[in-house]
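quick one, 127 residues, struct below
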Amino acid sequence: MAIDPLTAPIAGADHREIGGIQIDMARAGDCRVKRVIYPPGFRWSKDVKPLVGTPLCEHAHVGFLARGEIHMSFADGCELHFKAPQVVSIEPGHDGVVIGDEPAVLIEFDFERDTIARLGMPSEHKH
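---
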C-alpha cells in the first residue's frame, strides 16, 4: 500500500491531537507551518468548543486547503465555503465543519498570537 505524502508523518514536526484534529507543526523563522487534518464529520462547535470554552473558534486560519471541503459560519450569519485546492483566509469568530466523507487537509501558516497583525487581517469577521 502506497503512503500518502499529504498525511504521512512529518520528520521533525511536533505532533498534537485535539478534538479529533491532527496537527503537525514545524517552525520556519518566526512562522509556524502546520499541517492540520480535520476528520470527516468534524465540527468545531461539537469537537473543540467543549475543550476550549469559547463560543466560536477565535483563531485566524491562513493557508492552502490541499484536500477536502470545509464550511465556515460566522456570528453575523455570513458563511464561507472552501473546496480543495484553494487558498483560505478565515478570520476569528467562526464555527467550521468538514463536508463530505474525506478528511480536510489544511497547510496553515501562523505567527501564534501575532497572526492577525502580521498578516494584515481583520481581527474579526465583518459582513
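The domain at 21-87+101-114 is CATH 2.60.120 (Jelly Rolls).
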